[in-house]
Amino acid sequence: MGEASAGASSPKKRLGILISGRGSNMASLVEAAAAPDCPYTVALVASDKPEAAGLAWAAERGVPTFAQSPKGMPKAEYEAKIDAALRAAGVEAIALAGYMRLLSDDFVARWRGRIVNIHPSLLPKYKGLDTHARAIAAGDAEAGASVHIVTEELDGGEVLGQARVPILPGDTADSLAARVLAEEHKLYAKTLADWLRD
User: Fold this and answer.
1) Residues annotated as catalytic (active site), given as ranges
2) Which residue numbers belong to the known binding site?
3) Could you tell me if 100 and 131 are in contact, meaning their C-beta atoms sit under 8 angstroms apart?
4) Residues with Cβ within 8 Å of residue 139, at least 6 apart in sequence
5) Can you say which residues are annotated as belonging to the binding site for (6R)-10-formyltetrahydrofolate?
6) Where are the alpha helices (DSSP H) in 9-123?
7) How many other β-carbons are positioned within 10 Å of the β-carbon of residue 186?
8) pLDDT tens digits, the chain, 198 residues: what are they?
């Protein structure tokens, strides 16, 4: 009985992860969740693309998954289905990991302060898309990634953590993106764990 009650004092937070593609950041979060001291467990991986490779990866590892294509339905109806799936899984916090749809203000309001995202730039620089090409074109010495709270403003919420990557001579958007992604995998798991402990 002693062992069970020792862990019961701080139950792990139930995390939902939203993806749209291969889900490499999602995979790093799932793998981090296996550590005994990790403060979260992955309760659901959900996607707007039923064919997303990350869904198959998660399912193979026993992580519950949910897919709902938004095609042919109003945004509010689509988001209601995602919201219902997250709530049915007992999700307490949401991590966006390569989820390529903008969340509505209503969805963000329902989960206020409980959604985080990883963005491939050193926010507040380069919100939105094409971040690596924009950093190179601007002549920046470094690029990187930011984990931030999701608000109604695109990539505008409080920054919880950042990783910096030097921009090298001859870098392309693709070569820079690959180096930033490697840092994203480490940054997201650590920042998310710290945030959920607080």
Assistant:
1) 119
2) 23-25, 75, 100-103, 117
3) no
4) none
5) 75, 100-103, 117
6) 24-32, 53-60, 75-88, 105-110
7) 13
8) 444 444 445 799 999 999 999 999 999 999 999 999 999 999 999 999 999 999 999 999 999 999 999 999 999 999 999 999 999 999 999 999 999 999 999 999 999 999 999 999 999 999 999 999 999 999 999 999 999 999 999 999 999 999 999 999 999 999 999 999 999 999 999 999 999 998
Determine contact, residues 16/94, Cβ cutoff 8 Å: yes
Segments of the chain assigned E as strands: 13-19, 40-47, 65-67, 93-96, 115-119, 142-149, 159-166
For the entire predicted model, the pTM comes to 0.93
C-alpha dist (Å) from residue 100 to 19, 21, 47: 8, 9, 10
Question: Please, are residues 120 and 131 in contact by the beta-carbon 8 Å criterion?
Answer: yes
DSSP line for 69-96:
--TTS-HHHHHHHHHHHHHHTT--EEEE
Question: Cα 194 to chain center, whole Å?
Answer: 14
In the chain, the domains with their CATH numbers are 13-197 (3.40.50.170)
